[in-house]
Design goal:
There is one protein chain. Strand 5, helix 4 and strand 6 form a beta-alpha-beta unit. The chain has 261 residues and is of the alpha/beta class. It has seven helices and ten strands. The strands form three sheets. The protein has a six-stranded parallel sheet with strand order 2-1-5-6-9-10, sandwiched between helices.
């Protein structure tokens, strides 16, 4: 299947804290299969080794090392660590054999924080060597955004009221990320409120919000007995609608309305 996706638009997939690219491929397998005719998904390991994240053990006990997107015992990247994260991203991008354009970021949990920070940096900074991503997908995302360039994000400055879910204040108008986005959350996820707060950073008119009866995982994960059979398809359809306004979905210019009419 990997060779068949070389020409497709590419999405960079950022795993959660305390996991790895290999584990995320397994966790994302149902959604990846649902998207494989439309996008090439590219996975990479975060640069900082860590302990296993929540829910990783005992299923992935023999799959170490595990990684995270920020240095241990810090709330956000320092300048040296931001350089390392950026180099990690650039290396993965340059080594991928695909030929399609880079169009999206997909992040789970802490990877969602990282993806939102990258999109904020893209909007608030001068052009960089990183791609100009067109949309973001956030699955059980944490909060607040992790900026590599210290974009004006609540929580990074240490100002304002903070509770157990992170900064309380809603973002200002200048902080809104004007990139199409899809936000997927589990109603049984203990971090549900973090995902809801992260969504506030994205422009209301160009975001899709999906909440399913599930925990801190994707629909259909091992042991999942609560999410519906059609939940993965609903996520796929939302992603396709966000990308290109529902056009150029299957490599031949056939739009979503024609496919699902």
């Amino acid at each position: 299947m990997d060779a068949e996706t070389l020409h497709l638009p590419r999405i960079l997939c950022l795993h959660g804290g305390g996991t790895s690219a290999m584990i995320f491929k397994i966790q994302l397998r149902r959604l990846a299969w649902s998207l494989h005719k439309h996008f090439r998904l590219v996975f990479l390991d975060a640069p900082f080794e860590s302990a296993a994240g929540p829910g990783v053990l005992p299923v992935f006990a023999n799959c170490d090392p595990f990684y995270q997107w920020k240095p241990p015992s810090t709330h956000h990247p320092t300048e040296p660590s931001a350089l390392l994260v950026r180099q990690t991203l650039l290396t993965a991008i340059s080594l991928d054999a695909g030929t399609g354009p880079w169009v999206g970021l997909l992040g789970f949990s802490q990877g969602g924080r990282m993806a939102s920070g990258l999109l904020a940096d893209l909007q608030n900074s001068e052009p960089t060597s990183l791609p100009a991503w067109k949309f973001g997908v956030f699955i059980c995302a944490s909060y607040p955004p992790l900026s590599l360039q210290n974009a004006r994000m609540a929580g990074l400055s240490g100002e304002g009221e903070v509770d157990g879910h992170g900064p309380v204040a809603a973002p200002g108008a200048e902080e809104i990320i004007r990139v199409p986005s899809v936000h997927v959350r589990g109603l049984l996820d203990p971090h549900l409120e973090k995902g809801r707060r992260l969504e506030r950073y994205f422009e209301e008119g160009s975001r899709v919000s999906l909440e399913f009866v599930m925990g801190h995982h994707l629909p259909g994960a091992a042991g999942d007995t609560t999410s519906g059979k059609g939940d993965t398809d609903e996520i796929r359809d939302a992603i396709l609608r966000m990308y290109g306004g529902g056009r150029e979905l299957n490599g031949s210019g056939v739009g979503l309305d024609e496919i699902y009419a």
